[in-house]
Amino acid sequence: MRLVTTGRAIRITRPIVGRVTTTPLADRTNAVLLASVANCSPGDLAGYAAIMTKDDADKQTTVLNAVSAPAMHSIRDVDHIRDRDVVALSPTGHVRTVYRPDSDHNTLFITERCNSNCLMCSQPPKDHDDTEHFLAINRAVVDLMDLDTKALGITGGEPTLLREGLCELLSLLRDRLPATHLHLLTNGRLFAWPEFASRFAQIRHPDLVLGIPLYSDTAVGHDYVVQAKNAFDQTVMGLHQLARWGVQVEIRVVLHRLTISRLVHLAEYIYRNFPFVVHIALMGLEPTGYTIHHREKLWIDPFDYQASLEETVEFLNVRGLNVSIYNLQRCVLPRSLWPFARQSISDWKNIYFDECALCVERANCAGFFQSAERLHSSHIQALE
Amino acid sequence: MTRQFYTIDAYGGHAQLYRLLPFRFTRIDSEELIVNEAGEFLFVPNGTVEALIRHRFPPNTPLYQTLKAKQFLFDGESSPNLDLLATKYRTKKSFLDGFTRLHIMVLTLRCEHSCLYCQVSRQTADRAAYDMSRETVLRSLALAMRSPSTHITLEFQGGEPLLAFDLLQFVVGNAKDLAARNGKILSLVVATNLAPATDEMLRYLRDENIMVSTSLDGPAFIHNANRPRIGNDSYELTIRNIKRARDYVGTENVSALMTTTQLSLKHPREIVDEFILQGFRSIFLRSISPYGFATKTARRTGYEPGDFLGFYRTALDYIISLNKEGTYLVENYAKILLTKILTPYPTGYVDLQSPAGAGISVRVYNYDGDVYASDEGRMLAETGDRTFRLGNVHRDTHTSLIESPAFQYLIAGSCNESLPGCADCAFQAYCGADPVFHHSTQGDAIGHRPTSAFCQKNMGIITLLFRKLRSADRDLNRVFFSWIQDHAHSCIPVQAQCD
């Protein structure tokens, strides 16, 4: 499934966020009409935040040129866009689906900037200041989200780089959507500064978990993976600052050649030093972004690290820590680990292979990232 | 700006000078056991300790990384690990938060049992002589409320406190009023043999949320021999009354203590089987205290630490094998030690901690108004040695009890960190100090470790547990953690359940 398409922008000078409708509405505030405009009158199109259409406004003399509403025309693909989706239209012609009412995998994208540069980053960072751009979009998205939204992810880049901007956004979510569970992905480094940790904790969001990665029980091992000197020290201190303020924390470990070698030690380090974590996610590698570039360093067939994984899960589980395995397939995991394996891949990038159709475990299996088509375990098979 | 990637050398891992953090060590079988300040341990090959302290340990080895991650040493790259160690040390000592949490009130010395090992009870009908007066009750409660802890446990002892049931009701009513007024969370426990328990009493215990701690020494032939009573029917009464008590207050609120006598030593399995038969989920294999009447009957009840260790090992192995087969039964002493060894948490067990629980975590208000540092301290007084009498509720204040010479004497022997023989013991972080025991058996609060029964028993049991941990038996590990998980996070004093 795609979440991005492109078109050609008319009169779009800054990002426009609105809720899609394919049928005419009386209240057109914040609504984006998606329609064929060939037979529309100017009145049909008036009052909407924007108009979206597959029609080519340049080739045809359409009504689009007769109204003042911003418009995106010649959109390449609209099949994935549903009524009531929230979309962001940018002056560059990008049409991003930023919220889908029926999905549990909605995410606010905060920034492309990052203070780490992880070897296996699936969304490599960019070094330009996009703070205001994304903040404006996200404020508008939050205003349009359904009040009964169950869960929302917040990701980047590194969201804490926004500092006060992030705190403002979380406060907005707290006030408008207090029942929505928030999951914020952050490297946790900035929380090492007590002033920021304290400011962040003052938000007092009722249902917020921070997902923070830790890749080794040693500074050198972690810093190398995240390609940032002192990152381990900062994350470790950040975890303690967050615990001090009672902020809920999950630790996330991406499983690859560099993290597997000390995985059991890492589990013990977590238990001894951060026993307060609410969840530990052990996550199969997403073979996209930088990972492809570092394939030689990182890739190990998941089948070949199952003994380590089993020992680690046993270690954490008997100690009462809440542990899950993400992104790994049942045919790769020993049966003892099945109870810990989750269907963790976001719906829009979750695929199954042809042979999975025959597998009796397909309905319980995490399946694959779309990007796994080019890199996956050589032990994939239909289970009988 | 394009982003670059760097090799691992850019992030450290160079050979460099390391510095040692405090740790202690011993040799167990063919390996060295090292334990850091927060109780984290590691089995390492023989020779590791010497290489470490001579600064000859090779960096860039996996073991070096582990030693660093577990805070046995630090180098230029591990500064936050010092803060982590401090936090863990503070957590391990957090049983000290709030100072005295367990307040034991001896409501009466009267009892209708005459147990061989009992230190204090009297068979008499004279209420006036051996019951606590109401004025003493009120003074005791006022002192208990002065404790900084927001969580206060009141444990009623005797004698047999149910023989003074109207007094118990008076205490409970007043304690609840005072707790509410002082913002304290109150837990109540009655230590009783249950023999005098009427339905009315059990209903009252249920309505007032009072937990029951009773005694069961094993099957009838052991229990009745240890706990004589007119009619020689203590076992039958106890079993019947445990069932009644469970019906009223709930199974989870009735616990039973066992005390090991010379007779018990020969029957570890029978005792364990009895606890399972009676539906208990835990047993506490307790050695006898060398106090009070127990010393007088030592020839009939007493034994050497080695004898107890043999008994303990057999019973523990049996309990473990039962657990592996699916019968859940916790051995509480092992659970306490394993929690100290395997988790970052402290335990609420007041009889094995440093500083010692006596006077700090626990205080005893005797029927006559005298205040003792611990139950053992008041039992010792019954034999004529009032060393651990801190004062009297009618004459002293919270401050003067703590400033008393008795308290100062006690404190001098309370920290195993500074006791000869303990200061460099590998098991220091898991063990405790017992100044009352050492005073009563060796003549001073500090004591002499090589001849100390306290030391021999704990060294023996801790070594036994480490041998088991070293075996890396997955099923055993699961059994141990199933025990620990019950209460790993609890820091409520549990002498009531496990003394």
Q: What is this structure, in a nutshell?
A:
The complex is a heterodimer of chains A (384) and B (499). Chain A has 384 residues and is of the alpha/beta class. In chain A, 25% of the residues lie in helices and 19% in strands.
How does this model look, in words?
The complex is a heterodimer of chains A (384) and B (499). With 384 residues, chain A is an alpha/beta fold. In chain A, 25% of the residues lie in helices and 19% in strands. Chain A is built from 11 helices and 17 strands. In chain A, the strands form 3 sheets. In chain A, strands 1-8-7-3-4-5-6-2 form an 8-stranded mixed sheet. In chain A, strands 9-10-11-12-13-14-15 form a 7-stranded parallel sheet. In chain A, a hairpin with a 4-residue loop joins strand 7 and strand 8. In chain A, helix 2 (131-144) runs parallel beside helix 3 (164-176) and helix 8 packs parallel to helix 11. Chain A is globular, with a radius of gyration of 23 Å. In chain B, the strands form 4 sheets. A 9-stranded mixed sheet of chain B has the order 12-10-9-8-7-6-14-15-16, with helices on both faces. A 3-stranded antiparallel sheet of chain B has the order 2-3-4, covered by helices on one side. In chain B, helix 5 runs parallel beside helix 6 (165-182) and helix 15 (332-342) packs across helix 21 (474-487). The longest helix of chain B has 20 residues, at 305-324. Chain B is globular. Chain B has 22 helices and 16 strands. The chains are: A alpha/beta (384), B alpha/beta (499). Chain A binds chain B through residues 117, 119, 124-125, 127, 217-221, 223-224, 227, 229, 232-233, 236-237, 240, 262, 265, 269, 271-273, 275, 294, 314, 318-320, and chain B through 1, 3, 5-6, 8, 10-13, 38, 40, 62, 65-66, 68-70, 77-81, 83-84, 87-88, 343-345, 474, 477-478, 481-482, 485, 488.
